[in-house]
Amino acid sequence: MTISIKRNNLPATSFPPPCRGRARVGVEATSLTDSTPILTFPLVRGCCRVSGFTTTAYSSRVQGGGNWVGGTIKQYSACLGLAALLLSHAAWAEPDNSSATLGMDEAVTLALSGNPGLAAMQARARALAEVPSQVGTLPDPTLTLGVLSVPTDTYSLSQEAMTQSQIGIGFTLPFPGKLGLREQVAELEAATASNDVDEKRLVLVRSVRSVWWNLFYLDRALAIVQRNRNLLREFVRVAETKYKTGMGMQSDVLLAQVELSKLLDMEIAVQASRRSQASALNALLGRSANTPIMLPQLASETLPPAPDGARLLELAGASRPLIVSRRNALLAARSRTQLAEKDYYPDLRIGASYGYRRDADNGTPRADLASITLNMNLPLFAGSRQGKAVSQRRAEALKEEYNLRDAEVQVGNEIEQAMADYVAAREQASLYKQGIIPQSSQTAASMLAAYQVNKVDFLNLVRAQIALYNNENQYWKTVSAGWQAWARLESATGTPLAAGNTNNDKESNNEQRQ
């Protein structure tokens, strides 16, 4: 926006008869995009008129009532103050996106690549993926080397016929089916760990998007607070000018100062909240807590239509990693039960050895010896060991069944709550955007025009402006809540939902709030 002060730039017909023929000065604001005048403020000696000004981001033009105020030269400062007030109010619609910013998609990418908690779970999943082949392979054979039956009086290897140098090898053969079950359990545990990684990824993405939208809302709240702070400062100047010229009351000045102090207090609180949310986002991204974060000023305000709830439940049942993880955990528990039942049957240990004997001292030859052994464990205490192990595994399988049911109920509840929040936020955002804010904006503009001609007291003017501020702030809070609910829906279903790009959508931001 450009602001210029022009002399004789308005036709005489723009002024009432008492003001025609006098020196005329116009304050004009034009848009940087198309050089179209968006505010004209003619001033003449003893006359002041607001001919028209843009008050909302919807390009809705509110015409002044054509009211004229006669007065002294001191009143020109009040008119100029009101002009600056309106100019600053309209200038907010031209945001600056020149600085490097952190878009939501970029934040998600950084989190997925830099979050240490996710990296730890990925490392655990990779470790468990190496287990199945280990437990599904036969135990390594054992090699035995020894010297047997050596006489202790001479330690001669040829004195006694039983003395021999022996070498042997042994194998352990688990009962048929045990190795397969052990490998199956390990594979299911590895799959469960992989599902846990996917679940962690979903939760991380949801958290990043939620915090990002919180930050975006706080940035918008700060912009609104700062804009209204400047607005109230102009109100203070106008009230002081009217008070000094005898056209206003001191209470108006004090009221404006109180409201200005409230806004400053609110700005401090919003800045503190933003710092906290920025630290939380940095933690999710795996960065230092004090790393500066600047978000784009533009993001999609258009919340897509709500998806079908029944379809989301179907998607969650098939795609939600939490449910798939619980199913794999149940299958693993059942396999452990089968493995415990196999422990009633013994494992076999087979061994073979060869014993070399030296010839006797008198030259008598001695034959070498060969041995074969077969060992097995006997479940003599099956009632207190194997039986208890089976009962334990069955109880664990029952626990996993309940965990699966609980996960299904939990996911259904998450979807229902997120859907309710999303639908409410979408409807509220539409109501604020299409009804409440335009009406509040027009009310504030009308109050301002009426205040200039002393038809409205200062308290109503301030109330109208504060109401507009609250509505604009609530609008962005509602949009943020809507997109956070959408992120929760995607996390609950375990799959992306069709929606527009929410990273740097400039299309909808042609409707930025004034």
**What radius of gyration results from the CA coordinates?**
41 Å
Largest sheet: 6 strands, antiparallel
Catalogue the unreliable spans.
1-99, 500-514
* Tally of helical runs: 10
**Portion of residues within helices:** 55-70%
Structural class: alpha+beta
Q: What gap, in angstroms, lies between the N and C termini?
A: 14 Å
Shape: elongated
Description:
There is one protein chain. The chain has 514 residues and is of the alpha+beta class. It is built from 10 helices and 10 strands. It has helices at residues 74-91, 104-114, 116-129, 132-135, 178-244, 250-285, 309-319, 321-342, 386-452, 458-493, and strands at residues 2-7, 24-30, 37-44, 47-48, 52-54, 61-62, 142-148, 164-173, 348-356, 369-376. Strands 1, 2, 3, 4, 5 and 6 form a 6-stranded antiparallel beta sheet that branches. Strands 7-8-9-10 form a 4-stranded antiparallel beta sheet, with no helix packed on it. Strand 3 and strand 4 (47-48) form a beta hairpin. Helix 5 runs antiparallel to helix 10 (458-493), helix 7 packs across helix 9 (386-452) and helix 8 (321-342) runs antiparallel to helix 9. The chain is elongated, with a radius of gyration of 41 Å. The two termini are 14 Å apart.
